[in-house]
Amino acid sequence: MEGLLSVIEELYQGKITASNTRVKVYKKSFKEHEQARLIMVKTNGIRYILVVGKGSLFDDLQGENIGKGKACPLSHENRLVLNRYFDYTVPRAFGTKIATMGLGDRLGLASPGHIEAIKGRLVKPILAQQSIRELTLTNRTMNDMLDAAAFAVFQEGYEGGYGADGDHIKQESDIQMALELGISMLTLDCSDYIPTGIGAKSLEEVRSEFEKYPKDVQDYYNERYLHQTFDVNGVAISFDEETLIKYVLEYDEALKYMVHVYNEYISKLDRDFDFEISIDETETITSPMAHFFVANELTSKGVKVISLAPRFCGEFQKGIDYIGDVEQFERELSEHALIAEYFGYKLSIHSGSDKFRVFPIIAKHTKGIVHVKTAGTNWLEAVRVIAKTNPYLYRRLHTFALRNLEEALKYYHITPDLDSIAPLDSVTDENLADYMNNDAARQVLHVTYGIILTAKDDNGEPLFKEEFYKTLDEYEDEYIESLVHHIGNHVDTLGL
Ligand SMILES: [Zn+2]
């Protein structure tokens, strides 16, 4: 708490103190509300909101009395207070008229950099975005994620609006929980309902499976699609028996689940909401035709989606560029984009970090109406900062990640060429950050984040987590700078 007294004294007099060696003052956070004044500060690595004055906001914020004010910790309760008084700290939906970018923040530290990176651009940030898998792997809760985003917005004085995505949620209990906690976007993951291997089956095989469906279901699909051609913004889509049956077998169960979730939860909300359907986390590539089939069924059943994430051809592996045939990607993407436009939602691009080869194609065909989801690339930028500023920590992380890669591969699909990673003892401290320019090293560190952050020593103490956070805290400006640069490159290449 050292040094806070004088900051509080000046705040009381209406002055904003400059940062000094003991206290960092986040000037952009300064706010006045009726008779209260607030500002965020950091001392000894811990952030507080200082509040002076009087009134209900002053009373509602909980903290330690210091001089004429209070130093309030960044607690969940205090976040809820900010939400009540300052609308811009509440996550909101964005609909289909503007691009959005998913900027999941595993550490709870990246949002200030993300805000800086997208300020003034033609894109809104979804600052809070974690899947249940990511939360579990990092021992965080959905509230931790929402708290971190709201405090970052307050710290930066960013009033442009941000979203919070319950990312890749599968279970109804998780949907319910996330909605109650105030998410503004849900990415419904339907992969458990999409069987694989249908595409490889013969017509006889799929026909006999289709014949097991109730007669009225068979009739329904046949009447709507069989030997029909649809003109979708100039793309002709026609269904013969085999393609139709295969789509029914692939998506009928998933469609039922989407409709159920929409009717049971989304349509009942009394607020604007961004509902996204994801059919990307499966081996089944979504052809433009399959995309049309799913979208057409959703529309006819009254399900309003804001975005839909197909599984594109080629590979969208975490943290590295697109792998695959770029020409084929463009052909299919252009049709996916026309289909999305036809049904009036945004195309959603998942695992969208670092896909620089295809960003210009995405920009060209989605014309600024797109959702691009990135998640781990800000973690890699954090690792880059560690490599530059704390080489000893970086070396231990690197060794640990390689040694425990097997474990991480249970959760993530990557195919790194491990031989291309230079042996650690051959690299000088000055060059450690170069590992973050090597695809294989990027991927190894990308997928081992959970193992690194939760690793314990023999006494049950965190092996890396505290030092990792401490280093990033010390070099917070460097971290912001590297995110502004890296995420800025994404936004530039996407033409947003
Ligand atoms: Zn996805």
SSE blueprint:
Elements: H1 4-12, E1 23-33, E2 36-43, E3 46-53, H2 56-60, E4 64-66, E5 69-73, H3 76-85, E6 99-103, H4 111-118, E7 123-131, H5 132-137, H6 142-156, E8 163-169, H7 172-181, E9 185-189, H8 203-210, H9 215-225, E10 229-232, E11 235-238, H10 241-266, E12 274-278, H11 288-300, E13 307-309, H12 326-343, E14 346-349, H13 359-366, E15 370-374, H14 377-389, H15 391-403, H16 405-408, H17 439-447, H18 449-454, H19 465-474, H20 476-493
Parallel strand pairs: 6-7, 6-15, 7-8, 8-9, 9-12, 12-13, 13-14, 14-15
Antiparallel strand pairs: 1-2, 2-3, 3-5, 4-5, 10-11
Helix pairs in contact: 3-6, 4-6, 4-20, 8-10, 10-11, 11-12, 12-13, 14-15, 14-20, 19-20
Bound molecules: zinc ion (ZN).
Family: Belongs to the UxaE family.
Function: Catalyzes the epimerization of D-tagaturonate (D-TagA) to D-fructuronate (D-FruA).
Binding site for a divalent metal cation: 168, 318, 350
Provide a descriptive summary of the structure in words:
The protein is an alpha/beta fold and 496 residues long. The chain has helices at 4-12, 56-60, 76-85, 111-118, 132-137, 142-156, 172-181, 203-210, 215-225, 241-266, 288-300, 326-343, 359-366, 377-389, 391-403, 405-408, 439-447, 449-454, 465-474, 476-493; strands at residues 23-33, 36-43, 46-53, 64-66, 69-73, 99-103, 123-131, 163-169, 185-189, 229-232, 235-238, 274-278, 307-309, 346-349, 370-374. It is globular and about 80 Å long. It starts with a helix and ends with a helix. The mean pLDDT is 96. The site of zinc ion has 6 residues, from loops. GO terms for molecular function: metal ion binding; racemase and epimerase activity, acting on hydroxy acids and derivatives. Catalyzes the epimerization of D-tagaturonate (D-TagA) to D-fructuronate (D-FruA). This is Tagaturonate/fructuronate epimerase. It holds the Pfam family UxaE.
